[in-house]
Amino acid sequence: MYDHSSSFEHYGSIDWRQGKTKFEVGDTVYIYCTRPLMMLQYKCIVDKIDLDSSQIRDDKEYWIDQEEYLKSLDGKFMTLRLIEQISNNRMKLVNLKENGLKAAPQGPMKIKNETLQKYIDTYFTDNYQTDFFPETLKESETEYEGAKKTVIVNKYERSSKARENAVNYHGLNCKVCNLNFKKVYGEIGEDFIHIHHIVPINEIGKNYKIDYKKDLIPVCPNCHSMLHRKLNGKEPTIEELKLMMEK
What we know:
Layout: H1 4-11, E1 13-17, E2 28-33, E3 39-51, H2 66-71, E4 77-85, H3 93-97, E5 109-110, H4 114-123, E6 150-155, H5 161-170, H6 181-185, E7 194-197, E8 216-219, H7 221-227, H8 238-246
Pfam family, one: HNH
Domain HNH: 174-229
GO molecular function: endonuclease activity; nucleic acid binding; zinc ion binding
């Protein structure tokens, strides 16, 4: 099994086996997460195609089974650059099937159903977010208008190691207002917290590896939203937001 979540989180892209599907640079690729999520969660752009194992990033550390890692080095690869990561119930399998998807993706498939494409175009956004505030790449939509086709691929979702490490290190209290969901809401609030990237992924170097101690911080949804609102063209820091609350 491959830890896609951490790989995306650390580098902003992954090298994915092409299989028998024909891809072109500029294609849009949505990644479907299987059980337990069963939803579309990642939107990517194909940056490179037809790469061999000598041309891709060494991602051995993200493979749980090293034998599977060695097997994965056969064939051609493409580089998928992360554009947007969401958690939106409208992208769950049951809703996708109600809007044109015939069955859960078992491998790469082209979206040919116009109703399904329109539904995804409309609702693949965190304006309808459910579980967490995404740390997405803020790229211009118009930059990718020339994409030739849209493809859905599937993956097995694992909890991000970086997120888990951040929670273990920092705890579950909001670092701005000190809210702890379990203390306020009881059992339903256990282990719930948002994780904020202090420096957005799109502002760090391509090969930068996230340090969960200094780059990730737990915050409640309200404070997280405020951290992404701009004042005079600039998002506030944790300390600046604390000062705002004290006024």
